[in-house]
Amino acid sequence: MRKRYREPKPPLMQKLIEYGLVIVGSAIIAIGFNVFLLPNQVASGGVSGISTILRSTLGWEPAYVLWGFNIPLFIAGLIILGRHFGAKSLIGTLFLPLVVFLTKEWDAWTNDALLGSICGGLMVGLGLGIVFRGKGSTGGTDLAAQIFHKYTHMSLGVCVAIIDGIIVLSAAIVFDIEKGLYALIALYVTSKTIDLVQVGLNRSKMALIIT
């Protein structure tokens, strides 16, 4: 009878580091969203982009929208990506909207939409890159990007950009073309920052080993 192969469990310290990365990354995303993207109506994709649109059109609280949309995507990630991934994604799925809720009264750090889209894109991309390095997710379309990445082997940044394109287009329709262009800028910055965190750090390690 053939024995079923089981992947070795990661050491406790590695698990703690991965969970810590998910928490820190989620907090960075939430703060970047509240102080840069939301006040400037920059819907740069993701469930956060959807929540920006719904906040402006229907007055819905972004944190509740994030929790609501992330439930089915979390279930899908749990089934496809495994229980270990699901546990960390559950933390990200719950923690990100919590920080969004706790920081909702923070003042905008800039009222310039261009600067907000660039800085917001940097913070969201940095946060997502950190979460991905922790082998987790904050739910939403970045979880969908993880699933897409698993089957296509495209970079995570490209996967996020493809999935979020529809949301950015919706933002251009709901707000105006200018806000849609700002959203594209933020989306591009987010994509490149994710790849920098994912690939750049590995290249740095490789260069250190070679030298």
Layout of helices and strands:
Layout (H helix, E strand, L loop, with lengths): L11 H26 L8 H13 L3 H20 L1 H20 L10 H21 L6 H13 L3 H19 L2 H34 L1
Helix pairs in contact: 1-4, 1-5, 2-3, 2-7, 3-4, 3-6, 5-8, 6-7, 7-8
Structure in words:
- With 211 residues, this protein is mostly helical.
- It has one domain.
- The chain is built from eight helices and no strands.
- Helix 1 (12-37) packs antiparallel against helix 5 (113-133), helix 2 runs antiparallel to helix 3 and helix 3 (62-81) packs antiparallel against helix 4.
- The termini are far apart.
- Residues 206-211 have low confidence and may be disordered.
Structural class: mainly alpha
- The H/E string reads HHHHHHHH
| Contiguous helical run count | 8
What does the largest sheet look like? none
Q: Mean of the pLDDT scores?
A: 83
Q: Give the tally of β-strands.
A: 0
The Cα radius of gyration reads 17 Å
Number of domains: 1
**Percent range for β-strand residues:** under 5%
How would you summarize what this structure contains?
With 211 residues, this protein is mostly helical. Helices cover 79% and strands 0% of the residues.
